[in-house]
Each structure stands twice: as C-alpha cells, then as structure tokens.
C-alpha cells in the first residue's frame, strides 16, 4: 500500500510507543514523516531508521505545550518538505491519583501536555493543512476520554476535551478540505504504562491482552488516509472491548 505517497505527516510524541509505530507505519506506506518530541536521541533514531529503510523523515525538537515551539515545528516541516498533509497529535502524559490528592501542578501539567497541545497544534498547522487540499488530523485521545476510571482526573478531563475539540474543529473545517478525527486506545503496551500492574490491565480488558502500538498505528493510518475520506468529527475506538460493556 502507498496511501501516503506524496504526503507529509507531523507526528508528536513520535520518539516512543504509539507515535513511533505510527511514524514507521506511515513511512512504510510512502509518506514523509516529521517526528516531533522532547526525546531528541530517540526521535532522531526513528527518523534514521526510516531513512535507512529508504524512506524520507525528519526530526524536530518540540515541547507541545509551547505555542512558539509549534510555530517553529510547522515552519521547519514546511522548509524541509514543502507541505503538511497529516497531523497526528499523539504526545500525552497521564496522572494516576484520586482527585483529592491531585495537585494543581499535576492538573496543569497534564492538561497542558495532553489537551492544550492539541489546540496549539491544530492552530499552528491550520493554514498548511488547508493548503494541502487534502488534510487530515488525528488526535490521539483514549478510551479514558469516553469513560471514567475513578482516578486520574486530569487525564480523563484532558482526553474528554480532546474528543470534543476534535468534533468542533471538524465541523469548522468540514468544507476546508481538512478532516479531523479522534482515536481512542485502550491499554497499549508502551512506556507510558510505567510500573502499572499489567496483569490488572489485562484482566480488565475483554480480549484478555494489552494492545500493541502497531495495532494503534494501523488504525491511525487508516483514519489519516483517504480510506477514511468521508469520516470527520468521528471517534475510533480500539480497546480490546473495554468500552463495549
Ligand atoms: N499506552 C496506552 O495504554 C494508552 C492508552 C490510551 C491513550 N494513550 C495515549 O497515546 C498517546 C501516546 O502514548 P504512548 O502510549 O505511546 O506513550 P509513550 O510514553 O511511549 O509516548 C509518549 C511520547 O510523548 C512524548 N512527550 C511527552 N510530553 C511531551 C511534550 N511536552 N512535548 C513533546 N512530546 C512529549 C514523550 O517523550 C514520548 O515520546 C498519549 O497521548 C497517550 O495518552 C495511550
């Protein structure tokens, strides 16, 4: 498949986990990818891997909470590759505690990285995505943007906000040639899980296993590609059945 031939994608959090798998997937389908992350060595290694496989890739240092950082990352993408067709807002962090002990600092940090970043990213990329004539934004929310868990108030609030920020932007851009959708992973085996008890996550998942980053990458690639050309403002869940109950 060459669904991304001639197209350029910017993927935040592309140094690790779901973002890395997405960068590799889009590149394997002919796309040029720009990996944006705080982890410079790991991000550059993903770009090198793609180039080693014969693809085209670049790396930009980006703190997704920085409006100036976003302006620079989009400008660098345009200067490296001349266009921007796909934006994957994937970078995110979580909190783990009950509301009563969650500090304002934690709240503000999680909301900045996980929610405000998506606003800043779409705003910075808007002109370039419209100029593409066939733009696609994939915002990585979570099944925890749809259902609660009892803890992690900042993460749930941020991921829920991403879901509706996606829908209202999709409506605003519906006739501008830019589709905007959200994807909602369940528990995926990436470094973000930290020392969380994986057996507990598996036990809570109807399919009885964690998802793989590549399984999210294939969904994100589908949503980003013309295979999803009539989908905008939609939410795509891949959670091993978690939210089906
Ligand atoms: N793994 C899961 O179980 C799961 C479930 C639902 C949703 N998600 C979401 O998927 C997305 C990707 O997570 P992952 O599981 O691949 O985790 P991960 O920790 O492997 O990757 C996250 C990446 O984001 C980068 N990042 C963090 N803060 C940043 C910042 N301020 N600026 C730029 N980059 C930053 C990190 O350096 C890292 O490379 C996140 O939004 C996460 O909330 C993950």
Structure description:
It is a single chain. By secondary structure, the chain is an alpha/beta fold. It has one domain (8-244): Rossmann fold, CATH 3.40.50.720. It is 44% helix and 16% strand. The chain is built from seven helices and seven strands; from the N terminus they run E-H-E-H-E-H-E-H-E-H-E-H-H-E. Strands 3-2-1-4-5-6-7 form a seven-stranded parallel sheet, with helices on both faces. Strand 1 (8-12), helix 1 (17-28) and strand 2 (32-37) form a beta-alpha-beta unit. Helix 3 runs parallel beside helix 4. It is globular, with a radius of gyration of 17 Å. The relative contact order is 0.15. The mean pLDDT is 98. The site of nicotinamide-adenine-dinucleotide (NAD) has 29 residues, from helix 1. Nicotinamide-adenine-dinucleotide is lined by residues 12-13, 15-19, 37-39, 62-65, 90-94, 113, 140, 142, 185, 187-188, 190-193.
Which features does this protein show?
about 240 residues, 7-stranded parallel sheet, binds nicotinamide-adenine-dinucleotide, alpha/beta, Rossmann fold
Proportion of residues in β-strands: 15-25%
Number of helices: 7
Order of strands side by side in the largest beta sheet? 3-2-1-4-5-6-7
Shape designation? globular
Order of helices and strands: EHEHEHEHEHEHHE
The largest sheet, given as strand count, sense and whether it forms a barrel, is:
7 strands, parallel
Structural class: alpha/beta
Radius of gyration: 17 Å
Ions, cofactors and other bound molecules: nicotinamide-adenine-dinucleotide
Tell me the number of strands.
7
């Amino acid at each position: 498949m060459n669904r991304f031939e001639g197209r350029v994608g910017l993927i935040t959090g592309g140094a690790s986990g779901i973002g890395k798998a997405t960068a590799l997937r889009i590149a394997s389908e002919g796309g040029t990818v720009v990996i944006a992350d705080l982890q410079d060595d790991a991000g550059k290694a993903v770009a090198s891997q793609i180039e080693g496989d014969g693809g085209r890739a670049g790396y930009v240092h980006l703190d997704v909470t920085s409006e100036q950082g976003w302006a620079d990352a989009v400008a660098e993408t345009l200067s490296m590759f001349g266009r921007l067709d796909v934006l994957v807002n994937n970078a995110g962090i979580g909190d783990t505690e009950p509301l009563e002990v969650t500090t304002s600092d934690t709240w503000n940090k999680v909301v900045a990285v996980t929610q405000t970043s998506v606003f800043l990213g779409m705003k910075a990329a808007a002109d370039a995505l419209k100029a593409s004539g066939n733009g696609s934004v994939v915002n990585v929310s979570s099944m925890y943007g749809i259902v609660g868990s009892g803890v992690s108030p900042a993460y749930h609030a941020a991921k829920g906000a991403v879901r509706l920020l996606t829908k209202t932007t999709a409506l605003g851009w519906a006739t501008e040639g830019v589709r905007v959708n959200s994807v909602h992973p369940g528990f995926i085996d990436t470094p973000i899980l930290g020392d969380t008890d994986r057996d507990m996550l598996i036990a809570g998942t109807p399919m009885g296993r964690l998802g793989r980053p590549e399984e999210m990458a294939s969904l994100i690639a589908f949503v980003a590609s013309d295979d999803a050309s009539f989908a905008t403002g939609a939410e795509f869940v891949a959670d091993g059945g978690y939210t089906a109950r």
